[in-house]
Amino acid sequence: MGNTSKNYNIISLNIHGDDEGHLIACQYKSNCPFDIKRVFWIYDTKAMTMRGAHANRNSQFLLVALSGNCKIKVDDGVNQEIFNLNNPYTALYLDKMLWKEMYDFSHNAILLVFSDTLYDKNEYIRDYEAWKKEFTNGKQ
User: What fold does the segment set 8-14+24-139 form as a domain?
Assistant: First the structure.
């Protein structure tokens, strides 16, 4: 499932198909490191709009660009890395407490997101400095 030394990594999803079409399955322990409890997607995102800009205390995520492309900036408190998701057979795994920003969506972008938790507004940290402080305190 990719590089597991980081708390985020790219996962290649196996494509099954032939001349008549293709299928990609996502399942726990095969190509998804968690049991999926919630699925949502982001689409029709206006130009110059940033989504995310938060961290989650309890949720892990797997992001896939089903159509079009977008960029994901991931901050783990030490490193910042930008990923360009641009196909339906590459997923980005994000562990808990990572700061994430999704932006530069193409006009036809559909970003599919799997999560291991149900929605809980109280687990979101929407202030970057507050996240850095909480993240740093949790690492000591």
Answer: Jelly Rolls (2.60.120)
